[in-house]
């Protein structure tokens, strides 16, 4: 068993000139393609017993966090449409004002003592996850003149194989900053790029409580045939 | 349906940094009481200018001392690099892992590196110097000999192994497409 390589154009390059931080951090030598071994096809069991869930980011130690409360829900599937059961999903984000609760974030937007911006949930038997948070704000960064990151939530996922490990970002529909963002636009395939944009979803929306967004995530699928016997 | 695109972890990923996770043998952790050779893995991540990467996320995934992934040992750790680009894990030395057919892979630890400026993780492996099985490990054998050393940790103090990682430039680490 091994995991299929990603479809062409769906993954960003290491060297993306429009995103300045890649300049000194991308390898110049080609990656060495290896046949997957047990090391790549197995993965840690990230259980709730070891890593406690935290599904409500919108409630701080004192009171409700500032900003627009939202619910985000979706399914984690593999490329064959099989749900990943019990998959650990970590999320982190800026607060409603566009400021991270992080010592290196020097943006002069206000911090919110009731918003840490870190959550952890696990998928159910059908691959569903769900959490409540605050809609993050856009924030400036130094990549180029007048550069602003579109509103986003960071995601970290563990699948059933080391080769499925994924860190990505979820964006919001209709964000005018999306066409200007080099990180979003470094994904060559437009359809793949647009799958990083969540959809407003009235079924996820909870009456008198919070708007809902749907964001599904697909991890690499399994190869039907074993890979060639090369290392 | 194709796999979701990767995006950078960015500079503020430390909201999911839990320093205890870098110690796989932590008291009250998943591996308390499992026997094996206790080791410390250290290294430093530098960029194409040789400057430290102080904002990287390093994860390890490894087999247990018997070379098993499906046993009680929880072989996962996460560590943030410090101001000098350094990382440090405490763990048990993995055993040889079953490879193709009846062969065995040399003891190794898989590493993933995420950071600002990395739109996808970089994956590499840490092997142990002087390990007899290194000679017949199929992945090490597929690396050009001149670059093989970038995957081989060297012993420092007792039980401490060092593998520095260079993202770019002279002695660039061999990164793997898995």
Structure keywords:
heterodimer, A: 231 residues, mainly beta, Protocatechuate 3,4-Dioxygenase, subunit A, five-stranded mixed beta sheet, four-stranded antiparallel beta sheet, 24% strand, B: 178 residues, nine-stranded mixed beta sheet, globular
Structure description:
Chain A: It holds the Pfam family PCDO_beta_N. Chain A: InterPro entries: Intradiol_dOase_C, Intradiol_dOase_core, Intradiol_RC_Dioxygenase, PCDO_beta_N, Protocat_dOase_b. Chain A: Belongs to the intradiol ring-cleavage dioxygenase family. Chain A: Residues 1-27 are annotated as: Disordered. Chain A: This is Protocatechuate 3,4-dioxygenase subunit beta. The complex is a heterodimer of chains A (231) and B (178). With 231 residues, chain A is mainly beta. Chain A has one domain (20-219): Protocatechuate 3,4-Dioxygenase, subunit A, CATH 2.60.130.10. Chain A has helices at 38-41, 182-185, 190-194; strands at residues 32-33, 69-78, 88-92, 118-122, 128-134, 139-141, 147-149, 152-157, 166-171, 199-200, 211-214, 217-219. In chain A, the strands form 3 sheets. In chain A, strands 2, 5, 10, 11 and 12 form a 5-stranded mixed sheet that branches. In chain A, strands 4-3-8-9 form a 4-stranded antiparallel sheet, with no helix packed on it. The model of chain A has no long low-confidence stretch (mean pLDDT 95). Chain B has 178 residues and is mainly beta. Chain B has one domain: Aromatic compound dioxygenase (Protocatechuate 3,4-Dioxygenase, subunit A). Chain B is built from 2 helices and 12 strands. In chain B, the strands form 2 sheets. In chain B, strands 1, 2, 3, 4, 7, 8, 9, 10 and 11 form a 9-stranded mixed sheet that branches. In chain B, strands 5-6 form a two-stranded antiparallel sheet. The radius of gyration of chain B is 16 Å and the shape is globular. The model of chain B has no long low-confidence stretch (mean pLDDT 97). At the A-B interface, strand 1, helix 1, strand 9 and strand 12 of A face strand 2, strand 5, strand 7, helix 1 and strand 12 of B. Strand 1 (32-33) of chain A pairs parallel with strand 12 (176-177) of chain B.
